[in-house]
Design a protein that fits this description.
Number of strands: 19
Largest sheet: 5 strands, mixed
Oligomer: single chain
Distance between the termini: 49 Å
């Protein structure tokens, strides 16, 4: 199914990339003159970072085959390579082994290009190329050139490998070489297209662009006895015809080279495409969600299409996503999904709804990209005021993408790791709240009424209520001591999350002098805050001594909801005061002293 989808992708995008061509970075250009009078011009393209679609095929072993018109300097120019000299500087190798190898490979390259010239005597470029081949092999090269640098040949500025005759000739040659050896042509039923065709012995195009991939990374490779099936190695037990093998590998390389259809996550590469190539997929990378598009996806959850119209849409288009990794030059398919486009939109809408958080100051909902959620599970560096990206749990970004596309739960270890990070580095921001809420919703079937973006004041869930109480006690302290350097949250939240009874009992006693301080300037505000705190304590039969992992998550969620709710109330109190209105007792309690200074701020960072 995977190979069939890739072949279909190539057929739907005919003309994008020629057969056995690949996007490559060319570093040097040898430009021939059609007049034949001028010396070939050597152009350094390294600073331009020039990438071209050029011939390519997989090669390995002690006698690798040359590539037409676009090969390394060792093949194209007999470059022996650079070595480190006694002073540490790189110098041209004079080793007899390196020189002999370079001459041997250059001779093979000349033979390949000569064969092309002999097959195309009618072309105007043939005479110029033949004259260049007949000239002596170069003995001097640019100082910065090395043997592995890609060198492409052009004439009067036009790449020779872009000639239609070069494309068709190269495709025919590679197909012939990658099929069984002459006299042993293997005809059989291709597992991909279902037709009797000449079968490949190995896939002709290696896969490029996956993190940690090598020069000859193969999508299908059976070259060790442990891999053999019925004693047959390579593709003998996996019959794939020449066309299907070429198209599938070419399609995958094209997707990996296209930023609109691929994303990298740690050691993984994620590619996606649709049956209809004109379908917009910019939103589906989950890397940069736009609020307007997210709002449309979430709105679609409330008004799903029903009946025959919805069933008819299911077959209109399909979405494919593939997660790849590499192990010793073999591609690992970590995840593969095929779903209708309407179902994809439903799952994406659910994904963003599950991680939705509320910014109380600005009264807006926030959404986060997959990579930003994964980063929130890393260690927070207080000195640099940022996350340490090297501490993100392995494969977490790819696992979150998989959860989004499959509509499944994130990894089971996510919630404990996230809670440990919060307790250890004393940092709580909106991406961490979003990730915590997502993990809660998708890993538990209980407490659905609490897994909402905003406050639920009627909930009696102990962990949630304890978190609300902690936020209220913090607000009382801040109201009484606007310039305090270290809040009770800084000191006690790590302990309160695990063992709330001892901490909250002590802090409630400590809040009494703060309330008396508030009463000196605003007795109604002090009474409102005291009543609010007492009513919240009354929601509990008893303060729990210890909280489970799930209850700890609910504690932090309750803390966040209460704090965001207070931020919204404070913002409204500021507006009322600016309008000259007299504040009620509740509004006086919510109008914290520092709120006037931070009215244009966001509550992204809580702790």
């Amino acid at each position: 199914m995977l190979l069939q989808s890739l072949v279909q992708q190539t057929d739907n995008r005919q003309g994008d990339v020629p057969e056995y061509y690949l996007t490559r970075r060319v570093m040097w250009q040898i430009d021939l003159s059609s007049t034949g009078n001028a010396e070939p011009l050597v152009i350094d393209l390294r600073q331009e970072q020039r990438r071209i679609t050029a011939p390519y095929t997989g090669r390995a072993g002690t006698k690798p085959a040359p590539i037409l018109f676009a090969d390394t300097a060792q093949f194209a120019l007999a470059h022996p390579g650079l070595v480190k000299g006694p002073d540490g500087e790189k110098t041209l190798s004079i080793s007899s082994t390196d020189v002999t190898k370079a001459k041997t490979r250059h001779a093979a390259y000349r033979a390949l290009v000569t064969s092309w010239c002999n097959d195309h005597p009618h072309l105007a470029q043939t005479q110029t190329v033949a004259a260049w081949l007949n000239s002596p092999a170069p003995t001097a090269w640019p100082l910065e050139m090395d043997k592995d640098h890609l060198v492409a040949i052009s004439m009067d500025g036009e790449w020779l490998h872009d000639l239609p005759d070069a494309r068709s000739w190269w495709a025919d040659k590679v197909k012939k070489e990658k099929s069984e050896k002459a006299g042993k042509t293997n005809q059989g039923l291709c597992l991909v297209c279902g037709h009797v065709m000449p079968l490949l012995s190995t896939l002709p195009v290696p896969i490029k662009g996956i993190p940690n991939s090598g020069m000859n990374t193969q999508l299908v490779s059976l070259n060790q006895p442990a891999h053999f099936r019925a004693g047959t190695k390579q593709l003998g037990a996996t019959p794939i015809c020449v066309d299907c093998g070429t198209k599938s590998a070419t399609a995958l390389n094209t997707l990996l080279a296209d930023p609109e259809h691929r994303a990298f996550a740690d050691e993984s590469a994620i590619v996606w495409w649709t049956r209809n190539p004109d379908t917009d997929t910019s939103m589906w990378a989950l890397n940069n969600p736009e609020p307007e598009e997210v709002a449309q996806l979430i709105a679609g959850l409330r008004h799903p299409r029903r009946g025959r119209d919805a069933l008819a849409v299911l077959d209109e288009d399909a979405f494919y996503a593939l997660t790849l990794r590499v192990n010793t030059n073999r591609v690992i398919v970590a995840d593969w999904i095929t779903i209708p486009v309407p179902e994809l939109k439903r799952r994406l809408g659910t994904w963003f709804a599950d991680q939705q958080t509320w910014d109380g100051w600005n009264n807006t909902y926030t959404y986060w990209s997959v990579w930003r959620l994964a980063l929130a599970c890393a260690r927070w560096d207080k000195r640099k005021n940022k996350y340490v990206d090297t501490t993100v749990p392995k494969h977490l970004q790819a696992d979150l993408t998989k959860a989004a596309l499959h509509g499944a739960a994130p990894p089971a270890h996510l919630l404990p790791v996230l809670l440990q990070r919060v307790r250890a580095d004393h940092h709580l921001d909106r991406p961490r709240i979003a990730l915590l809420r997502l993990a809660l919703i998708r890993t538990t079937t209980r407490h659905k009424e609490l897994c909402v973006p905003q406050l639920n004041p009627q909930s009696t869930e102990p962990g949630y209520v304890c978190g609300r109480i902690m936020a209220m006690l913090e607000a009382i302290q801040t109201k009484a001591m606007p310039k305090v350097n270290t809040t009770i949250t800084d000191k006690y939240l790590s302990t309160a999350v695990v063992s709330p009874r001892a901490v909250l009992t002590r802090l409630r006693i400590g809040a009494r002098p703060h309330l008396r301080t508030i009463a000196r300037t605003s007795e109604p505000a002090a009474k409102a805050m005291d009543n609010r705190l007492r009513d919240t304590f009354d929601l509990l039969d008893t303060i729990p001594a210890h909280l489970s992992t799930e209850q700890q998550a609910l504690f932090i969620l309750g803390y966040d909801h209460q704090r965001a709710h207070s931020a919204r109330a404070a913002a409204e109190a500021i507006k009322a005061r600016e309008a000259g209105k007299e504040l009620a007792a509740e509004q006086q309690a919510d109008a914290l002293p520092q709120a006037a200074e931070d009215a244009d701020a966001s509550d992204d960072t809580h702790w």
